[in-house]
Amino acid sequence: MRVYVGCSGFFYRDWVGTFYPPLLKREDYIRFYAQYFEVVEINSSFYTFPSRSTVKSMLSRTSTLRFAFKAHRIFTHFRKYTDQDVAKFLHALEPIFEEDRFIALLFQFPESFGYGDEHLDYLERLSKDFRGIQKVLEVRNKSFRKVDFYQRLEELGFSLVNTDAPKGGRFLVGPWVGFGAINYIRLHGRNMDRLYDYLYSLEELKKLKDKIKKLGKRETYVFFNNTVRAQAVLNALQFKLLFGIRVDIPQSLQKSTREKEWE
Predict the structure, then answer these.
(1) Per-residue pLDDT tens over the stretch 118-169
(2) Angle at CA 160, nearest 5°, toward 156 and 166?
């Protein structure tokens, strides 16, 4: 299993001074991020179609970083897109395809998107419209916890996203099974009251590592989404260490939390 660990996004204001040096220019954030990580998940594309110039700019600032992009909500939440929307979205990503630095396109559906023939047909439409593109699917409705669905998903060319999230909430946690060409894991934290504001303990990270190792020997991507106060960064670096990947943890990150004995 080849494991790559990163964060969901690389720019948040409260990362400045915690992860990013206080005087670092904004255009240098991605360069600094790339000193610690090989992969990043871009979430801004969910809210606004990415521009080709912005994509080229990100590529020009680092020669090593690889990118996953979250599909715009028109494809997942509104579900009223045109062929022109598909062409526009993929045109913006072409520079990443050309440099072979693309990981996958993440389709993350809301909890209201449940298991049923209509929604399965919609996934088949997405499969055809984004054929030839590495695709991963995160569903949040618990009705999708079905082996036949996972198998159908694989047939459509998607890889299943496994997630960690607050138990007892609205999210489908896990399901901790491997289906598709790659393993793709998103870790949202376990705070029921404030989603994405969570720092995993070392014991929790070790248990997550064991779950991930059981997914099968596919290329594996893990993204931490508990982005408040750069907790995702610290956990991601700790996770790299647990997988035997050498990395230094900035002192500013260690000082920002009470848990420092990560070795």
Answers:
(1) 999 999 999 999 999 999 999 999 999 999 999 999 999 999 999 999 887 7
(2) 145
CB atoms within 10 A of CB 121: 9
Written in H, E and C, the secondary structure of 167-236 is: CCCCCCCECCCCCCCEEEEEECCCCCCCCCCCCCCHHHHHHHHHHHHCCCCCEEEEEECCCHHHHHHHHH
Q: Which residues of 232-242 are buried (b: 16+ CB within 10 A; e: fewer)?
A: bbbbbbbbbbb
Q: Which residue has the tokens 């040096």?
A: 21
pLDDT of 262 reads 45
In b/e form, how buried is each residue of 91-107, taking b as 16+ CB within 10 angstroms? ebbebbeeeebbbbbbb
Q: What is the DSSP string of 21-65?
A: -TT--GGGHHHHHHTT-SEEEE-GGGTSPPPHHHHHHHHHH-SS-
Distance, in Å, from the CA atom of 192 to the CA atom of 176, rounded to the nearest integer, reads 20
Delineate the domains of the chain, giving CATH numbers in brackets: 3-255 (3.20.20.410)
Nearest to 88 by CA among 43, 45, 49: 49
| Contact partners, residue 101, CB within 8 Å, separation at least 6 | 59, 65, 66, 67
Q: Which two tokens stand for residue 228?
A: 């408040």
Task: Say what the pTM is.
Answer: 0.95
Q: Give me the residue label for tokens 């062409």.
A: 87
Write out pLDDT tens, residues 251-262.
Answer: 888 777 654 444
**Assigned token pair, 63:** 């020669």
